[in-house]
Design goal:
The chain is mostly helical. It has a domain of about 180 residues: MetI-like (MetI-like fold). About 75% of the residues lie in helices and about 0% in strands. The chain has 13 helices and no strands. Helix 3 packs across helix 13, helix 4 runs parallel beside helix 8 and helix 9 runs antiparallel to helix 10. It is globular, with a radius of gyration of 25 Å.
């Protein structure tokens, strides 16, 4: 009898469970609806009921949606996401190492780095876009001043994936990476490094063979955050991308022109890519954690 009483659920368990289930449904229900509607037949529409079951709209997506080059936008988003992931990981790890010691002005630098989290994304995008347009104006004035007509003729804009768009995305991903890395190093035991130095290891050898394996799962997590946050970013990209579009911007533009489930197929593809990246990151983090324990 005592065992049955101890195993009974508390009185508030089921109401809380219901609230949590409704929250999960609210979060992932729209995604599930889009995935289901993307597998309709050729006669399918944008709403239920479903008409048939096929891969028709995925084939149409592969063939192209009018003048929009989905393949090129996909490649741009993947390349930008990979670059953002790399820069976020490297800068976060370096900043975490640097902030282990007290730095002059370190607190101000930290607050400046994370301030973009509380600023409206569209304002950040507008500011970066304006900054690079001022760079364009200055460079063109410089070319005219020195008579560099060829350079002036071929110069377009400093706005682009590798410049303004990369910087705009880093204002969003880097603060998350910094916060994670600071938390990791705050719990890091420096005795491991001291033992490595006592055994004759150089600072680089200590970092490579001691520090990096211990923080590797967190580094993988930062990389996952960097890619996924960049992958679906719209607001910070909109004014800082230049004359090309990433896949989320193309998807946003297609919502007003495409009136078929092909747009749902595109949404399904982007969702699958996100889940694949998260799955790979989680698997790699688990593998690294097991190797660290071994």
């Amino acid at each position: 009898m005592q065992a049955r009483i101890s195993e009974a659920r508390p009185a508030g368990f089921w109401p809380l469970a219901l609230v949590f289930a409704l929250f999960v449904l609210f979060m992932y229900g729209p995604m599930l609806v889009i995935v289901l509607l993307s597998f309709q037949g050729p006669e399918g529409g944008l709403t239920f009921p479903m008409r048939g079951l096929s891969l028709h709209w995925f084939r149409q997506l592969a063939a192209g949606l009018g003048v929009v080059d989905i393949g090129a936008a996909l490649r741009r988003s993947l390349g930008l996401g990979a670059a953002v992931m790399l820069f976020t990981v490297v800068l976060s790890v370096l900043a975490g190492l640097a902030f282990r010691k007290r730095l002059p002005g370190g607190n101000a630098l930290f607050y400046i780095a994370v301030a973009s989290l509380i600023m409206p994304s569209i304002i950040v995008s507008l500011g970066i876009g304006l900054e690079f347009r001022l760079i364009d104006t200055g460079l063109k004035a410089l070319f005219e001043r020195f008579g560099w007509d060829t350079a002036l003729e071929h110069y377009g804009t400093a706005l682009g994936l590798a410049t303004s768009a990369l910087g705009a995305h880093l204002t969003w991903t880097l603060p998350f990476g910094l916060l994670i890395m600071f938390a990791v190093f705050n719990r890091f035991d420096p005795s491991y490094e001291e033992a490595a130095r006592d055994l004759g290891a150089t600072p680089w050898q200590g970092f490579r063979h001691v520090v990096l394996p211990l923080i590797a799962p967190s580094v993988v997590g930062i990389g996952m955050f960097g890619f996924t946050l960049s992958w679906d970013e719209i607001a910070r990209t909109s004014q800082a991308i230049g004359d090309v579009n990433t896949l989320p911007l193309e998807l946003q533009g297609l919502t007003s022109t495409v009136t078929s489930p092909a747009i749902y197929a595109l949404g399904t593809v982007t969702t699958v890519v996100s889940f694949l990246v998260m799955g790979l990151a989680i698997g790699l983090a688990v593998l690294l954690a097991r190797r660290r324990k071994a």
